[in-house]
Specification:
Blueprint lengths: L2 H7 L1 H17 L12 E11 L9 E4 L6 H8 L3 E11 L2 E8 L4 E6 L25 H32 L1 H17 L1
Antiparallel strand pairs: 1-2, 1-3, 3-4, 4-5
């Protein structure tokens, strides 16, 4: 079996994961990640639903800050699953926004929390021509942004791990399925 075949066979997992994230954004205050941290989820201004793997049907796209997700909810009731969404993550008082795609579980368009500007991003060279020791303020900003990117990626990986733990446990999977059906029906 080649890689493309394997990806196509497992595409349903990404759709279920993103659908679960939408559910969490509305139903749970702040889900706990496997490392014990909590993350508050907010559904963003882009949501794409499509037919479940192997099914035929049209896609539903909801863009902008629409007050009603009625069409998307109806799609859920008809068996459609989320293919892509914009998601907000709030952790430790910091807010991240990102796009997730179900097909490749890809993260894109990451908006990081603001980084405090350095006091002096361009350190003047001291007399004598020797460069000062240690990282510059600009280096510190880059390192802080890299750490923030790592936080966002770890949060998404933690959410996926929490989803898989529920999805792969027979009892928890049955509870999850009934909760998702009830949520979709009552929305």
């Amino acid at each position: 079996m080649d890689l493309l075949e394997l990806i196509n066979q497992k595409a349903f997992l990404g759709q279920e994961f993103l659908t679960w994230l939408w559910y969490l954004s509305e139903e749970e205050e702040a889900p706990a990640l496997p490392d014990g941290k909590t993350v508050r989820l907010t559904l963003g201004d882009n949501l794409v639903l499509g037919p479940a793997q192997g099914a035929e049907g049209a896609r539903i796209t909801v863009r902008g800050q629409e007050t009603s997700l009625a069409e998307a909810r109806e799609g859920l009731r008809r068996g459609k699953l989320v293919e892509a969404l914009r998601l907000g993550l709030e952790m430790d008082g910091e807010e991240y926004w990102l796009n997730l795609s179900a097909a490749e579980l890809g993260l894109s368009s990451l908006k990081l929390p603001p980084v405090a500007p350095a006091e002096d991003p361009l350190r003047p060279e001291p007399p004598g021509g020797q460069a000062p020791e240690g990282p510059s303020a600009a280096d510190g900003l880059v390192l802080e942004r890299v750490a923030l990117i790592g936080n966002a990626v770890q949060a998404v990986e933690g959410l996926f791990a929490a989803f898989l733990a529920r999805r792969l446990d027979d009892e928890a999977a049955a509870d999850l399925k009934s909760s998702l059906k009830a949520w979709a029906a009552n929305g």
